[in-house]
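Note to self: keep these together.
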Amino acid sequence: MATATPAITREALQAAALRLYVRRKYADRRASTAPDFWLSQSHSTIRTQHGVVPFVPFPWQRAWADGITHRELILKSRDVGSSEICVRWACWQQLRSGGNVLCKADKHSNAINLVSIARHYLTSLPAGERPRLVRDNETELELAGIGTVRALARGGGRSERCRYMILTERAFWEDSADELADVSGALVADGYQIVESTANGFNEFHSLWQNAVGYRRTFVGRLDNPTHTPEWWAERQAELAGMPGKLAQEYPTTPEEAFVSSGQGLFDKTAIVELQRSVRPPAETRLNGAVSIWLPPTPGHRYVAGADIAEGRDAGNDDLDYSHLAVYDIGDTSGPVHVASLHGQWTPEVFAQHACKLLADYAQPLLGVELNNSGQAAILAFQFAGYPSLFWWQDPMRLEEARQLGRPMPQPTIGWRTTTASKPILEQELSRLIVERALHSYDARLWDECLSYVQLGNGRTGAVGGCHDDRVIAHGIALQMRRVPVGRPALPASAAVRFGSNSRGW
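Structure:
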């Protein structure tokens, strides 16, 4: 009778892998300074759901530690060992070179957890490598003659000095930019800053990830943890049954999936990701890249345009806000096609001059200009330039009232006035076209803005902090111009030099 092969436990496999790994590294003494060697040869342990077991770095952890820079940015899935390796690496460096470690998180309890990881790591080292702790409490460890490991409370860090800074779950910080500015001042000139987080929609952390100026980016997906078995994944699916977006947010396989699946975006993110596949560079640029042309004018086609005008100067910033013009070909039966854009930082008057030049190529199409704020100055500039096709409208109730009372007809309102009544009309039409995959644009920046356009609370919508929505508004207005009947009379002569500003909505 055949004897059954005894089952090999997870702990035994990890222990065997550790012994093999250490033997190979010891074979080359020149490698003794490599982070992954040190992290393994110290015989430290790690706490898992299966108890305390030997620490064996995952492949991504070894690669990350070997190539670390002074500025690290990690976008991660949950349960991939990101916080573990960040803390271990910082403590390793601290033992070698001294200095303080500061840990800050979205919640103070999470920062305390980083200190707990450091405590377990340091106290699990062999006696000859283990530092003496002269202070050991929930929020702070003091290593004799070496430095401290501290958890920072919200708002803390202004008076601190550290060489190693770990900022975790950055995407969930409130007032993220201000908080980062406060704590970054604690870092010494040659210090190391490690930022790690799961995604939380298209907020300030998303902007940091996209731009990553000065940072080395690392994405760690759920598949980067080799212990994630099909059985483990089935358990996670059961836990988050009915919440596919949450599942993808917590355990993404790509950066795109991480951001798209998180946050409260107004537009269908899955559809946007599909539409992004058509993105391509413009066929022609002008005005140092401010003018982008994807498709030239086609004789006989009907075009429309929309413009969102800068409101002025940002608070505390000498730079002008961005203005945007979007031009659409609406002669394609498959849906409106975005053919050209104008985007830049100008006064309303200068913007109108540049816009008139571009629009002349497309036979001066019907143009809707957002009336709010600086839009009034831009409309006057378009009028003075003699632009013949400005969108105008009249309140039908006021017209009827004037007829019944025998009063002069009220002046038309030139431009699109964004109100609590008209803005949802714009957004709903844009949303419908996106869902139906009927909006054709090659502009990557338009889709980025659509992804970061969210419900802000209190019934408001717009771009999340650190992002813009001028393209969304301009494109939305342009698409509304399709509803204007062909051959509608031009502006009355009396409105040629003035426009109304007492509109009650669309």
